[in-house]
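FW: tagging you since you asked about this chain on Friday. Here's the raw sequence from the shared folder, copied in full. Didn't touch anything.
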Amino acid sequence: MSKFQTLYESIINEAESDAPNYRKADSDEKCLNCNFNKNGFCEKFDFKFTEGFTCDAWEPIKEDGGSSDYEDTLSSLNKKEMQKFLKSADLPYDSVDFNTFGDIVIKTEDPHKVHDILIGVDQLEGYTIRNNASDNEVTVKSKLEK
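HL: got it, structure written out here
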């Protein structure tokens, strides 16, 4: 396992540890039927939960369907996750955004830094580099698909 993958997994584990008393559920109060569940992702603590688990922040699903749209949640999770990874891995970047296809676009002012970003992101499980056409950006296929 690469040092980048290890760092990435520690970021995900940190998100899980933010969920108070995250554990295997022993009742019907599970992440799967929680108000913060957005298609398998905990919107409150920003991580992909394990089916059959729960935490002390569990809330019943609101009648209005919850607090946000699936695509917005999907995008914000990917963006936050990538920003945390880039920052923790000390990879130089200026911005992380999305293109019209929903891919993550990592931009840097210095084209020489693109190589470092490519190496780091390429080692992450679940992310695929789409292209490197520009001198100052890296486009990455999101690990979460609709």
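FW: Confidence is low (pLDDT under 50) at residues 65-74.
HL: agreed, and The chain has three helices and eight strands.
FW: great, closing this out.
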